[in-house]
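Hi R.,

Here's the input for the coenzyme A complex you asked about:
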Amino acid sequence: MKYNKTIILKNGKECCLRNGIESDGQAVFENFNLTHMQTDYLLSYPDENSFDVTQESRFLKEKSESENEIEIIAMVDNVVVGTAGIEAVGTKYKVRHRAEFGISVAKEFWGIGIGRALMDACIECARDAGYMQLELNVVTENVRAISMYERAGFTEYGRNPRGFNSRKTGFQEVIYMRLEL
Ligand SMILES: CC(C)(COP(=O)(O)OP(=O)(O)OC[C@H]1O[C@@H](n2cnc3c(N)ncnc32)[C@H](O)[C@@H]1OP(=O)(O)O)[C@@H](O)C(=O)NCCC(=O)NCCS
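And here is the predicted structure with coenzyme A in place:
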């Protein structure tokens, strides 16, 4: 899938949203480690990153060539400040209509419209790819993300009181949300 769009952020700066490609591997790897250190609301810790730079580059290459999955990066002043993507839940007929959504933006860039733009881009791509439902998990305390998801039309369909076990705070309740496309 292909995506390329330039937007103006709330601070007046330009932000380019486009496919992450093979040559972005190093920058995306660094952004992953940064964002996963800055918040306790994501699935993994930086030391659990299952990719090295080479694997990250290969992952981005595969996504940029995929017909139904994508990894979109947000660039400000030529620096990767956020990423978001959609992945198929499975290839079997019964689940082929479902995709999963994930997103993270570097903290320094929160609140100026990047998250919203990345999410809208992924929703557009999910529709174009023919999915009928987009899904995500979010920690209950992550009010910023939840309000963003609700504004886009995502609704809750369940909770897991012990969804995550944080190294810092212990169990975190996880909310399951879905958007019909
Ligand atoms: C969640 C996240 C992606 C939002 O990105 P962002 O760039 O700050 O988002 P935006 O500036 O586009 O704001 C999006 C929405 O967030 C909400 N929001 C923004 N600031 C907020 C605040 N201070 N308090 C509560 N909600 C807020 C609003 O609903 C806003 O929509 P609006 O601009 O239409 O009013 C970002 O905070 C992040 O990466 N967090 C850490 C990783 C994470 O939690 N990922 C999601 C895991 S499920």
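One thing worth noting: Strands lie at 4-8, 14-19, 70-76, 79-88, 98-105, 133-139, 155-166, 170-180.

Cheers,
M.
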